[in-house]
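Hi R.,

Here's the chain you asked about this morning:
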Amino acid sequence: MGPDLLSTSHDLIERAHRGDQAARQQLLEYYRDYLRRMVAVRLDRRLAARIDPSDVVQETLVEAAGRLDEYLREQPIPFFAWLRQLAGEQVVDVHRRHVSAQRRSVTLEQQDADLPDASADWLVRRLFAADTSPSNHLMREERHERLKAALATLPQRDREVLVMRHLEQLSIAEIAAMLEIGEPAVKSRLLRALIRIRERMGDPV
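And here is the predicted structure, written out as tokens:
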């Protein structure tokens, strides 16, 4: 997605609200790729062989289509924030159904907090790819695990903004619209999260 997404989706919402059926379909399809990234980041890797993120996205879009009239009447939050919320609920439901054998209680809050290991690894690599670290492989691996542990100790809202920016690939403007805060506040949260990670690592900030 790019910075023009917000204005484009606004136009589609206006047309859909006036009863334009083509706009309704375009509005839902417009976010398919983004939702797939969002779902893939949050699916437990134990489910990879059984669950395709695209299937979760399709279920999300079917539910959204059925509830679109209600959304268009109320428009309580930005449209892609609403879709993201529906997708998050679908992810939680998938975990409930497929990880229940592990007797693991999963809620939406827990799912946000418990970023799957593969996604946490990916996020650490993206955040600290240019970070200076020892050349010894074992020492690099140890530092990577320490960084991942530091990431896990962040407050959920700080970790989530890092995920949205670096894994879901949302722009600052899109994150701001989704969280209903200003762009400076988003930048502040991102910086604060990185500072907190370095503090937990004992690194200079």
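One quick note: The radius of gyration is 19 Å.

Cheers,
M.
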